[in-house]
Design a protein that fits this description.
alpha/beta; globular; ten-stranded mixed β-sheet; binds alpha-D-glucopyranuronic acid
Length: 363
C-alpha cells in the first residue's frame, strides 16, 4: 500500500549521483552525502557560516543546588571568534548531579524562559539527561530585520540578499554546533551521546544542525513539517509557496523559485533526513498538525531507510500502513511517533524522545 503511494510521488533518488551514476558502496555514499549537503545549501538553507577559530565561555551565574539540590545549573555566555569578528550568546546548562556523565540534549528554544512550557527542565534532568539550551532569537531575530541584527548582521554581504545567502534556520543550526564545541571541553558529560532537539521551525533547525555536523549522535525534530522532515511533493497543509512568502528569511533566496514547482526540485526532504545517516533521527508528530502533515513526514523516514540499509544499519522499522495515533516506532535508527492533539512540544514528546535515546545509547 505504501509502496505505490511513494512510487507515485516520483521522488529524486538518494542512491544516484547528480550525473545519474549509481551509489553502490559506503564510499560512494560519503561522496553522495557531500553532494546532497551542497545542494541543500545552494537551494534551501543557504551556505553554512564559517566554523569559529575560537570558542570560549564565561560563567555569569551558577546554582550548585538547583531543582531540590539535584541539578547543577550554570548560566553562561558563549563567545565565538571567526573572520576577525566576535559573536556571543547566552547558554544555560543543567547537569543532573547524581548521574555519571549524562547524555546531553541541546535544546534550541523559542523563548528564554526556564523552565518553559516546551522545556520541563526538572522532568528531563530527573530522567538522567543534561540539557544545554539557548534561545534562537539570541542568534538571529526571527523576523524580517533585513539581516541587520545578531549573527545575521555579522554575516551580511550586501544590501540585497541573493542566491545561496545564508538563511536563519542555518544560522540557528550553526549556534547548536557551537554548543557542541563548548560541550567537548567539559568532562562531566557523555560526548558520544549528544542530541539536538527543537520544535517546529526549530525542529527543521534540529535536522539541519545534525545533517551538517556529525558530532550530533541524535536529532529530534518535533512537528518539523514543511521544509523539515515532510516530503514536499504531494504534501497537505503548508507548501513552499506559503513558507517562502511568510518566512522568506528562514531560507536562502534560491528556495522560493520552487514555489508551485515542487516537481522540479532536484531534492526533497528525505535528502535532509538521509544526510544524517547512519546517526539517529527520531521524529515527533501530532495527528491534528495537518499544517505539518504527519503522513508526509512519515514518508521521509521510509525513503531515507535505504541509505541506512546501505550503511549496514537497521534503518526504519515500521508497518506497511500510514501511522495511527499512539504509534511509536523505535526499533530502528530512524524513529517516529504520532501522538494525539495539536502542534506543540508536549511532555509526551519529551518522554518518547528520552525513551529513544536511552534505548539507543552509544556505549
Ligand atoms: C508556522 C510555519 C511552520 C512552522 C511553525 C512553527 O506555522 O508555517 O512551518 O513549523 O510556524 O515554527 O511553529
Amino acid at each position: 500500500m505504501l509502496k505505490e503511494t511513494i512510487e507515485n510521488l516520483d521522488l529524486p533518488k538518494l542512491l544516484e549521483f547528480a550525473d545519474g551514476s549509481p551509489v553502490r558502496t559506503v564510499e560512494d555514499w560519503q561522496r553522495r552525502r557531500k553532494e546532497i549537503l551542497e545542494l541543500l545549501c545552494e537551494e534551501v538553507y543557504g551556505i553554512c557560516p564559517p566554523a569559529p577559530e575560537k570558542v570560549s565561555t564565561i560563567v555569569n551565574g551558577e546554582n550548585e543546588n538547583a531543582y531540590a539540590g539535584k541539578v547543577l545549573e550554570q548560566n553562561l555566555t558563549l563567545f565565538t571568534e571567526f573572520d576577525n569578528k566576535t559573536f556571543s550568546f547566552p547558554l544555560n546548562v543543567f547537569i543532573p548531579k547524581f548521574v555519571k556523565k549524562p547524555m546531553v540534549i541541546i535544546y534550541i528554544a523559542f523563548r528564554p524562559n526556564i523552565p518553559d512550557r516546551y522545556l520541563p527542565i526538572e522532568e528531563i534532568t530527573d530522567e538522567g539527561f543534561a540539557v544545554a539550551t539557548f534561545c534562537y532569537n539570541d542568534i538571529a531575530a526571527d523576523r524580517e530585520d533585513n539581516f541587520t541584527e545578531g549573527l545575521a548582521g555579522l554575516l551580511k554581504k550586501g544590501d540585497v540578499r541573493a542566491g545561496n545567502d545564508t538563511g536563519k534556520i542555518m544560522m540557528w543550526a550553526w549556534a547548536a554546533s557551537r554548543v557542541v564545541d563548548y560541550l567537548e571541553t567539559r568532562d562531566d558529560i557523555d560526548h558520544k551521546n549528544i542530541a539536538v532537539m527543537g520544535h517546529s521551525r526549530l525542529g527543521k533547525t534540529a535536522l539541519v544542525a545534525a545533517a551538517y555536523d556529525e558530532r550530533f549522535a541524535f536529532s529530534f525534530p518535533n512537528n518539523s513539517g514543511c521544509s523539515g522532515d515532510a516530503i514536499t511533493r504531494g504534501k497537505e497543509g503548508e507548501r513552499i509557496e506559503h513558507i517562502t512568502k511568510t518566512f522568506p528569511y528562514w531560507f536562502c533566496p534560491n528556495y522560493k523559485k520552487y514555489a508551485g514547482r515542487e516537481k522540479e526540485m532536484p531534492f526533497d526532504q528525505h535528502f535532509l533526513v538521509a544526510a544524517i545517516a547512519p546517526r539517529f533521527v527520531c521524529a515527533g508528530t501530532a495527528v491534528e498538525d495537518t499544517w505539518a502533515d504527519p503522513n508526509s513526514q512519515y514518508i521521509s523516514y521510509i525513503v531515507a531507510d535505504e541509505v541506512y540499509k546501505l550503511l549496514g544499519k537497521k534503518g526504519f522499522v515500521h508497518p506497511d500502513r500510514f501511522p495511527e495515533v499512539g504509534d511509536i516506532f523505535h526499533e530502528g535508527d530512524l524513529g517516529f511517533h504520532l501522538r494525539a492533539g495539536t502542534h506543540f512540544h508536549s511532555r509526551y514528546d519529551w518522554l518518547r524522545f528520552m525513551d529513544f535515546m536511552k534505548k539507543h545509547r552509544i556505549t
